[in-house]
Amino acid sequence: MTLAEDLPLTTESASVTEIKIEGITEPVLVRYFETLNAGDFQATAALFAPQGTMYPPFEEPKVGKDAIAAYLEAEAQGMILSPNQGIAETLEDGLIDIKVSGKVQTRWFGVNVSWSFVINSEREILEATIKLLASPQELLSMKK
Protein backbone atom coordinates (compact mmCIF):
# COMPACT_ATOMS: atom_id res chain seq x y z
CA MET A 1 0.00 0.00 0.00
CA THR A 2 1.31 3.47 -0.89
CA LEU A 3 1.08 6.49 1.38
CA ALA A 4 -1.63 7.97 -0.83
CA GLU A 5 -3.73 4.81 -0.41
CA ASP A 6 -3.41 5.10 3.37
CA LEU A 7 -4.92 8.59 3.44
CA PRO A 8 -8.70 8.65 3.91
CA LEU A 9 -10.79 10.67 1.51
CA THR A 10 -12.82 13.38 3.15
CA THR A 11 -16.38 13.95 2.00
CA GLU A 12 -15.32 17.36 0.71
CA SER A 13 -12.41 16.09 -1.39
CA ALA A 14 -14.44 13.17 -2.72
CA SER A 15 -17.23 15.45 -3.93
CA VAL A 16 -15.04 17.90 -5.84
CA THR A 17 -14.88 17.25 -9.57
CA GLU A 18 -11.60 17.90 -11.33
CA ILE A 19 -11.81 21.06 -13.40
CA LYS A 20 -10.67 20.98 -17.02
CA ILE A 21 -11.01 24.08 -19.13
CA GLU A 22 -10.40 23.69 -22.85
CA GLY A 23 -7.61 26.08 -23.85
CA ILE A 24 -6.56 26.93 -20.27
CA THR A 25 -3.83 25.28 -18.20
CA GLU A 26 -3.06 28.09 -15.75
CA PRO A 27 -3.00 26.36 -12.31
CA VAL A 28 -4.26 29.38 -10.33
CA LEU A 29 -7.34 29.54 -12.53
CA VAL A 30 -8.08 25.83 -12.21
CA ARG A 31 -7.65 26.18 -8.44
CA TYR A 32 -10.08 29.15 -8.40
CA PHE A 33 -12.87 26.99 -9.81
CA GLU A 34 -11.97 23.95 -7.68
CA THR A 35 -11.99 25.89 -4.40
CA LEU A 36 -15.22 27.71 -5.23
CA ASN A 37 -16.96 24.43 -6.07
CA ALA A 38 -15.66 22.93 -2.81
CA GLY A 39 -17.07 25.88 -0.85
CA ASP A 40 -13.58 26.74 0.42
CA PHE A 41 -13.98 30.49 0.05
CA GLN A 42 -10.91 31.35 2.16
CA ALA A 43 -8.78 29.29 -0.23
CA THR A 44 -10.41 31.02 -3.20
CA ALA A 45 -9.70 34.46 -1.72
CA ALA A 46 -6.09 33.43 -0.99
CA LEU A 47 -5.52 33.11 -4.76
CA PHE A 48 -5.93 36.88 -5.15
CA ALA A 49 -3.17 39.45 -4.82
CA PRO A 50 -3.38 41.49 -1.57
CA GLN A 51 -5.31 44.25 -3.37
CA GLY A 52 -6.95 41.88 -5.86
CA THR A 53 -10.45 42.83 -6.95
CA MET A 54 -13.54 40.77 -7.71
CA TYR A 55 -16.22 42.37 -9.85
CA PRO A 56 -19.39 40.35 -9.20
CA PRO A 57 -22.53 40.91 -11.26
CA PHE A 58 -24.80 43.71 -9.97
CA GLU A 59 -22.54 44.44 -6.99
CA GLU A 60 -19.85 46.88 -5.99
CA PRO A 61 -16.25 45.62 -6.49
CA LYS A 62 -14.83 43.56 -3.65
CA VAL A 63 -11.22 44.59 -2.94
CA GLY A 64 -8.81 42.49 -0.91
CA LYS A 65 -8.82 38.88 0.26
CA ASP A 66 -11.03 39.47 3.32
CA ALA A 67 -13.72 41.30 1.34
CA ILE A 68 -13.67 38.64 -1.39
CA ALA A 69 -13.93 35.78 1.13
CA ALA A 70 -16.81 37.50 2.97
CA TYR A 71 -18.68 38.13 -0.29
CA LEU A 72 -18.26 34.52 -1.43
CA GLU A 73 -19.33 33.21 1.98
CA ALA A 74 -22.52 35.26 1.76
CA GLU A 75 -23.34 34.80 -1.93
CA ALA A 76 -21.71 31.67 -3.37
CA GLN A 77 -22.99 28.93 -1.05
CA GLY A 78 -24.08 25.89 -3.04
CA MET A 79 -22.99 27.22 -6.42
CA ILE A 80 -21.44 24.82 -8.90
CA LEU A 81 -19.24 26.47 -11.51
CA SER A 82 -18.71 24.60 -14.77
CA PRO A 83 -16.17 26.41 -16.92
CA ASN A 84 -16.04 25.02 -20.48
CA GLN A 85 -13.41 26.80 -22.50
CA GLY A 86 -11.14 29.79 -22.44
CA ILE A 87 -8.41 31.77 -24.07
CA ALA A 88 -5.30 33.29 -22.54
CA GLU A 89 -3.22 36.19 -23.77
CA THR A 90 0.06 37.44 -22.32
CA LEU A 91 0.05 41.22 -22.23
CA GLU A 92 3.06 43.50 -22.80
CA ASP A 93 3.59 44.10 -19.09
CA GLY A 94 3.78 40.36 -18.28
CA LEU A 95 0.21 40.14 -17.06
CA ILE A 96 -1.98 37.32 -18.34
CA ASP A 97 -5.51 38.11 -19.52
CA ILE A 98 -7.79 35.06 -19.46
CA LYS A 99 -11.38 34.79 -20.64
CA VAL A 100 -13.47 31.75 -19.70
CA SER A 101 -17.03 30.77 -20.59
CA GLY A 102 -19.26 28.27 -18.88
CA LYS A 103 -22.25 27.86 -16.60
CA VAL A 104 -23.14 28.34 -12.96
CA GLN A 105 -25.81 26.28 -11.25
CA THR A 106 -27.38 27.60 -8.06
CA ARG A 107 -30.11 26.03 -5.96
CA TRP A 108 -32.69 28.03 -7.89
CA PHE A 109 -31.42 28.43 -11.45
CA GLY A 110 -28.64 27.83 -13.96
CA VAL A 111 -27.11 30.56 -16.09
CA ASN A 112 -24.41 30.96 -18.72
CA VAL A 113 -21.48 32.99 -17.41
CA SER A 114 -18.30 34.58 -18.67
CA TRP A 115 -15.33 35.16 -16.41
CA SER A 116 -12.46 37.52 -17.13
CA PHE A 117 -9.24 37.28 -15.12
CA VAL A 118 -6.00 39.25 -14.97
CA ILE A 119 -3.13 37.30 -13.40
CA ASN A 120 0.20 38.82 -12.39
CA SER A 121 3.71 37.35 -12.75
CA GLU A 122 3.48 35.93 -9.19
CA ARG A 123 0.46 33.91 -10.38
CA GLU A 124 -1.98 35.84 -8.22
CA ILE A 125 -5.37 37.00 -9.46
CA LEU A 126 -5.40 40.79 -9.78
CA GLU A 127 -8.94 40.99 -11.17
CA ALA A 128 -11.84 38.62 -11.63
CA THR A 129 -14.92 39.89 -13.45
CA ILE A 130 -18.05 37.76 -13.55
CA LYS A 131 -20.80 38.45 -16.10
CA LEU A 132 -24.13 36.67 -16.38
CA LEU A 133 -25.06 35.91 -19.98
CA ALA A 134 -28.83 36.09 -19.92
CA SER A 135 -31.59 38.16 -21.49
CA PRO A 136 -33.09 41.04 -19.49
CA GLN A 137 -36.24 38.94 -18.97
CA GLU A 138 -34.20 36.02 -17.62
CA LEU A 139 -32.30 38.33 -15.30
CA LEU A 140 -35.52 39.83 -13.92
CA SER A 141 -36.93 36.37 -13.21
CA MET A 142 -33.76 35.58 -11.16
CA LYS A 143 -34.07 38.68 -8.98
CA LYS A 144 -34.34 37.83 -5.27
Proportion of residues in β-strands: 25-35%
User: Helix/strand-derived class?
Assistant: alpha+beta
Q: So what's the overall shape?
A: globular
Secondary-structure element series: HHHHEEHEEEEH
* CATH top level label: Alpha Beta
The CATH topology name reads: Nuclear Transport Factor 2, Chain: A
Low-confidence stretches: 1-15
Largest beta-sheet details: 6 strands, mixed
Q: Which architecture does the CATH hierarchy give at level 2?
A: Roll
Strand order of the largest sheet: 2-1-6-5-4-3
Distance between the first and last residues' Cα: 51 Å
* Cα-based radius of gyration, to the nearest Å: 16 Å
| pLDDT averaged over residues | 85
Strand tally = 6
* Percentage of residues assigned to helices: 25-40%
Number of domains: 1
Q: Given the structure, what is the number of helices?
A: 6
Organism: Crinalium epipsammum PCC 9333
InterPro entries: NTF2-like_dom_sf (IPR032710), SnoaL-like (IPR037401)
Protein name: Nuclear transport factor 2
Pfam family, one: SnoaL_2
